[in-house]
Design a protein that fits this description.
about 425 residues; about 75% helix; Growth Hormone, Chain: A; mainly alpha
Length: about 425
Amino acid sequence: MTGPRKVHPAAWVATLYTVEGLPFVIVATVTSLMYKSFAALDPRITDARITFWTGLVAVPWALKPLWGPLLEMFKTKKFFVLATQFTGGVTFGLLALSLHMPSFFAWSIAAFGIIAINFAIHDTAADGVYVTALDAREQAQYVGWQGAFYNIGKVLSQGALVFLAGMLETRVGVLKAWTLSMGGIGLLFVILALYHTWILPSGARSAVEVTTFREVTRTFGDVVVTFFRKQYIWWGIAFLVIFRFAEGQAIKVVPLFLRSSRAMGGLGLTTQQVGKAYGVLPVIAFILGSVVSGYFTADRGLRKALLYLCLAFNLPFLIYAILAVVQPTNLLVISGLMGVEYFGYGFGFVALILFMMQQIAPGKYKTAHYAFATSIMQFGFLVPSMGSGFLSDHLGYKKFFIWVIFATIPSFLITWLVPFRAIPAEDAEPRS
């Protein structure tokens, strides 16, 4: 009897992490642009309202500990990946229809909330496939590509999807434009789910066998207790939360800043222009930054590379302060400066991925503990992002982005201070 078919990681890492990146960025960022377009039809949709509600519906990505342990007990990681991709495709279709409801804002926010819960489960399962199907050497080898394609999903959302919606806005109106765009995303998820049915490895079966409710609760408790017993775990939690403090504020406001009128301190771009600004140079820059960072970090080791990654991640936020002060009109200049920021973002984001894989996840419950780590990391992004609209409304865009520069200081401090734990040999060595 032959073993399971061995599929080269390149055949599925790219598509799996593109799927992982798309819905998060649609919910956390593209929604801001969509509602900004609808604001022209309803003046009650303010920046503060947009950032609060779109930040709130993204919270499920920070609640992975609620279901992460369950993925260690039942079925395979592949089962949950496929189920959530199909469900997500259908739900995006329902979202597109909700935009035609009289109280469309409330209905669409509810739909985005369901999408967030579904794909937060998907991300936990997808990460579980990655950390169980690949050995330690392969994890390090493909981490740059993992990050690159996760953020290709991000840029496809902010670039291609926004450009398409902006183009359609001028031809068929705001409502039909976003209906077609969101419905198209739903169809894409269904197609990718069919592909992954054939190509994706199983990601290993459950780490423990459970047959009764008592065993479920005991295993759930063991997953939680062993997570918090890890050496330096509170330092690790602090690192994951604080590292993204400035990013959470900046990234949520940037799309609104790009769309706001120049009289209000923004750049006055159309939806289509925003899609162009995100869609070419930032894509290339991010991929390049992620891939280069993967090799850079693998060569030096995470501990020695960490401060360089922090510098690359945070310093480019200065770009948005420059844009707010100068308010350039040339779209190529705007996109080029954003490309510089995205190169640094891609280069530095590897720090978070590898820290979670190498310092947090190793142990008996890799999938669940990696899910815990990613949820904590998302809190570090979502909490400051929820209040960023209120802050930018109060300060104005120029002062807000100057504040963001000072908000990077905690990230440098925690990067300098965080200790590294010694990983047991049985968890650190590659699997045969």
